[in-house]
Write a structure and sequence with these properties.
Blueprint lengths: L11 E2 L2 H11 L6 E5 L5 H6 L5 E6 L2 H10 L8 E2 L16 E5 L5 H10 L6 E7 H8 L9 H7 L2 E9 L4 E2 L6 E8 L9 H12 L6 H4 L23 H18 L1
Parallel strand pairs: 2-3, 2-5, 3-4, 5-6
Antiparallel strand pairs: 1-8, 6-9, 7-9
Helix pairs in contact: 7-9
């Protein structure tokens, strides 16, 4: 049996009914490529192998890789022993691929930023993460949980909170409750604004979320004479469209300054 490693944030799911429920939530077409991030002891893997898909597991833990290959010899040439945060995914997968996994809590946000990097190739993500983070990502504008990841992911994905998983379903049990969410790519191929500046605006404003936007974006634009209504709001009050509007306004002001 694989020993759970604290430094990798490993909490292995042990409830097969929940595993099947997570896999069934992915609901991808026959023959689709599915990347499983961090299979661990393979409770999702076993259910995924029953589906008519091309499964590509990515696992950083060598002990888990050895275990999975022994349990399912079919994985010998499929499993990738690598850090998903650092690897070049296009070296292993061409075309679209779906993502599934029980994401380690300590790197879940970083995984979502990787998903955003490959958003043109990733139609669907189903994952289990800390419930607090799941709520944050799925939260609408105006809520206390709404934040950077909420805006950036909701710009390109429709997000559904599916169900909650209690600590007793894992070994070792985590100190927090988990939540399962599904991200489904929306029709936005690109935002109608400078996307690099959009990300900067979202991060800058939420890093000072208690301030009015007028005060938090001074690091981007010093001259704020405008009476734009957006400037008098706080970032959690703005949806994706308003952040696009703010980004376009900022870029026009920067151009005028030049």
């Amino acid at each position: 049996m694989v020993r759970p490693k604290k430094h990798l944030g490993q909490h292995f799911l042990t409830d097969h009914s929940i595993a099947n429920r997570i896999v069934d939530s992915l609901n991808v077409p026959s023959g689709a490529t599915v990347m499983e991030i961090g299979p661990g002891t393979g409770i999702l893997t076993g259910s995924l192998l029953e589906k008519d898909i091309r499964l590509v597991p990515v696992e950083i833990d060598h002990e888990s890789v050895v275990f999975l290959k022994q349990k399912w010899p079919i994985l010998e040439k499929r499993i990738i022993e690598a850090d998903v945060l650092k690897m070049d995914l296009t070296k292993h997968i061409t075309g679209p691929f779906h993502v599934i996994g029980n994401f380690p809590y300590n790197i879940s946000s970083q995984i979502f930023f990787r998903v955003l990097e490959y958003r043109q190739q990733v139609p669907t993500v189903v994952c289990m993460i800390q419930k607090e983070v799941a709520n944050r990502i799925a939260s609408p504008p105006g809520s206390k949980e709404y934040g950077i990841l909420s805006v950036l992911l909701q710009a390109y994905y429709d997000i559904a909170y599916l169900f909650t998983v209690k600590p007793g379903s894992f070994f070792p049990p985590p100190k927090v409750t988990s939540g399962v969410i599904r991200l489904t790519r929306n029709s936005t191929s690109s935002l109608p604004c400078n996307e690099k500046l959009f990300v900067k605006v979202v991060k800058t404003t939420f890093n000072q979320r208690r301030k009015m936007i007028r005060n938090s974006i001074k690091s981007i634009l010093l001259n704020l004479d405008s009476e734009s209504e957006l400037l008098s709001k706080r970032p959690e009050q703005l949806g994706v469209d308003e952040f696009v509007e703010l980004t376009n306004w900022l870029e026009s002001q920067q151009t005028a300054e030049l």
